[in-house]
Specification:
There is one protein chain. The chain has three helices and four strands. It has one domain. The protein is an alpha+beta fold. It has a two-stranded antiparallel ribbon. Strands 3-4 form a two-stranded antiparallel ribbon.
Length: about 140
């Protein structure tokens, strides 16, 4: 039943891209946060995705013999962007330092929107693959009628 693994791969891709889109939304929502619970400005977060199937000979053997294996993509880690925070001169702000500068998050909304579009397109591609597999299975089942 290799079609089930195809559905699992597409499903894992949709899950990973949804999580990626959630992180982008979190970044946009916190683009103006100058003080988190830790007392520091918010830092942009990024998702690191990894392939679950390593592509070794043993994986190919398991696939050929019909042994169920987990394949697809998953979120490996959420990392913080270590690029510099954005200093803005605003001496009236409560978080201003002695020179009057406030450190704002390193979130660029244009980049976040680009990442959101990429995650959305990848999600759509996984939905299309999922629906194509589902359609093929339904057509194959109609052959037996």
């Amino acid at each position: 039943m290799s079609y089930l693994s195809s559905l699992n791969i597409s499903g894992s891709g949709m899950t990973a891209q949804k999580y990626r889109l959630d992180i982008v939304a979190q970044n946009i929502a916190n683009a103006q946060v100058t003080r988190t619970e830790e007392g520091e400005p918010y830092r942009r977060k990024m998702t690191v995705l990894r392939s679950v199937n390593t592509g070794t000979f043993m994986d190919a053997l398991k696939t050929a013999t019909g042994v169920v294996q987990k394949a697809g993509v998953q979120v490996q880690a959420i990392i913080e962007d270590e690029s510099a925070l954005v200093p803005v001169y605003d001496p009236t702000h409560p978080d201003a330092n002695a020179e009057g500068y406030v450190l704002y998050p390193n979130v660029n909304t244009a980049q976040e929107m680009t990442d959101a579009m990429g995650a959305s397109r990848a999600y759509e591609a996984n939905v299309t693959a999922f629906n194509a597999t589902k359609s093929l299975v339904l057509k194959a089942l109609e052959i037996g009628r």
